Structure formats: C-alpha cells, structure tokens
Amino acid sequence: MGFTMGLNFLLLIAMVATNILSLYHLSTTVQQSPKPPVPPPVPDHLIRQLNTIRATISHLTRHNPSTSTSTTAAAKPTSTVPQDLLLHSQIGPIASSCHNHPDLLHRYMNYTPFSMCPYDPDLQESLILNGCHPLPRRRCFSKTPSKPSSSSLPLNPFPTSLPDSSVIWNKYSCKSFDCLSKNNPIGFDLNAQRASLLKYSSELDLPINQFMQLAKSANSAIRLGIDIGGGTGTFAAIMKKFYNVTMLTTTMNVNAPYNEAVALRGLVPLHVPLQQRLPVFDGTVDLVRCGRAVNRWIPTAVMEFMFYDVDRVLRGGGYLWVDRFFSKGVDLEKVYGPLIGKLGYKKVKWAVANKTDPSGLKHGEVYLTALLQKPTSR
C-alpha cells in the first residue's frame, strides 16, 4: 500500500511538473501578435528536475510488484522489492548494471536488518562480475570465522603458512591453504610466485629489481602503486618487504579466498572487477602493473576504458607495466598494440614472444611484456 501511494505521489509530481512547463511556455507567448516569437528555452534546472522525476518513475515501475492476481496455473509470481533496496536507492547510488540483474540484486538485499547477514560470497561475486559494483550497503552483521586467531596473524608478507582459521571455507572445494597450494600452485605457492617475479630467463621477464633500477636511473620515485589482477598479492609483498613501496592489489574471490590471502599477508586487497573505476584519486600513484588477469579475454572496449583509467591515476612520469599480456599475434598488431599506443607513453621495454603451450600454438598466440612511462606533463 505504502509503495503504491509513493508511486502515485511521484506520478502526481510529474503531472504538476509537466503543467508548470506548459504554463511556462504559454506565459512567454505574446498575445495578438501576427508572428508569435519563439519562446525562450526552458531553464536547465526545470529540465533536470523533470528528467529526474521521469527516471525515478521508470525505475520504480520496472521494480513495482504486480498487484493483479492471475488464476492461470502457469502464472509466474513476481517477487517483492526488498524494503532495504528501496531505502538504499533513496540515499546512495546503485550501479546501473545492478538493474540488469534484479533477481540477484533482490536476493542480495533480501535479509533481516540489524541481524546476521546471509553468507553469500558467491552471490556477491556474481553481481560484481556482472558490473553491479559497488554493491549496495546492507544494515546487517557480516559473518566472521568461528575461531580466528589474531595472535597467529603473520607480520612477514612471506610467512611459512597462512592461518586457515582466518578464512570461512564453506563455499570453496579446498578447505585449507595447503590444499590450495597443492591444487593451485600458480596462485597460492607464495615462494614459486616470488621466484617468478625475481628471475630473468627470457626477454619477456622484467625482474622487479631490474625495474627498480630503471626507475632509479630515470630519477623516478616509486612509492605507491596498484597491481591489477594481483591474485594473492605476491608482487605487492615483494615491493613492501624489499623496497618499502605501498601497493594496492585488485583481486576477486573466484573459486578461492584471494582477498583473504592478500589481507593475511598484511597487504591491502581491493575487491573490484576489471571494469570498475580504480578507487583512487587522479595522478596519485607511481606505478600500475597489469598482471596475467589482463589478457585477450577482456572485451576490447572494457580494456580501453581500463587503460585510460590507469592513465588517470598515474602521476606524470609514472609507469604502466604490462606483464605477459597474451593475445593472438594478429590482434596484438592490429588491435591491442594501437590501443596501448594511443596513450602516447614512452616505450622503456616492449618484448613480444610466442606463447608455446598447446593453446598458444593452436591459436597463434603471443605474449607481450611492456614497460611504458607516462609523459611528465600534457
């Protein structure tokens, strides 16, 4: 009843606003003139108010539960919009892509306020990966591990092991970090990751110590950075431990607790997808690294927006490090190379080599490792 009254009230406001605009037009017309002059344009603030009312009505109409009842057995019931979703929509922004997945959004916001939140990390991941980010806030308490041990939290970003008790494992097939290390060594074998970032075995490699030397030779300070798609945060861990550089790591919990792993190492995880605007201010970081999560599977338009967002957050003279980006060779030449080239960055390193695994050989894929420096001024 209250929802319907609110909708009727908005419709009444829209009607009044439309009449006001009509009266505004009429009031500007000179009567008994042989050639009535063209009325002056409607003030922008009136147009904005009317558009806001129309958009609100359209939004509420799309989500308004049907009040009609059907006697047909095949009729599908319409879910009621959760009240906290309606409340949040009045006080904070909701990403437009959220409205493309109303069923998932309604499930996420269907909870009892001031009690325990539903434990739904898989639902959150689905919404975020579909562009619904940032997620709406909820008025409930997040579940925590049953027996967390703060005394066992490692201070070294390269601990001998990560504490299993600090993670809720219900949604994962593995129930420990040891299991993840054995079944997903690329992601959770911290020592193997560290070795891969420090070694030089081919032209595609850019060891971290070599990068830091290049930056020092160019009188470029490296203090702050972002590692996009940084997995468990090993790149950030090396930068912190050996060079006192603060790195933020963007990562998703796809089939494993990547965010928890980053945080347990004393690092800062950012739970944001690749299509999300980086949550830092313009021109504030010295380095942005794109790890192997950035590759040809990302839609070209998404990638282009991402690179320009990288340009936004990099300071003048900062570095963009593309680490083993892979694509078809012809696409690198005709699509991705020109796309990166639009940034107008200086090529400090640009190395291309064949991807020699079965998939790479089958599809004619190549790797690209590039270190690019943003102009000091534009």
Largest sheet: 7 strands, mixed
Intertermini distance: 57 Å
Report the average pLDDT across residues.
Answer: 83
The named CATH superfamily of the domain at 202-374: Vaccinia Virus protein VP39
The largest sheet has its strands arranged as 3-2-1-4-5-7-6
Rg estimate, integer Å: 27 Å
Secondary structure class reads alpha/beta
The proportion of strand residues reads 5-15%
Overall 3D form: globular
Query: What low-confidence regions span 5 or more consecutive residues with pLDDT below 50?
Result: 28-33, 63-78
What fold name goes in the CATH topology slot of the domain at 202-374? Rossmann fold
Q: State the CATH architecture of the domain at 202-374.
A: 3-Layer(aba) Sandwich
Give descriptors for this structure:
378 residues; alpha/beta; Rossmann fold; 7-stranded mixed beta sheet; 40% helix; membrane
Description:
There is one protein chain. This protein has helices at residues 2-27, 44-63, 83-91, 102-109, 121-129, 177-183, 185-188, 190-198, 208-217, 234-243, 258-264, 300-313, 329-341, 358-363, and strands spanning 224-228, 246-250, 268-270, 285-290, 314-328, 346-354, 365-373. It has 378 residues and is of the alpha/beta class. Helix 1 runs antiparallel to helix 2 and helix 4 (102-109) runs antiparallel to helix 5. The termini are far apart. The chain crosses the membrane at residues 7-26. It is a single-pass membrane protein; Single-pass type II membrane protein.
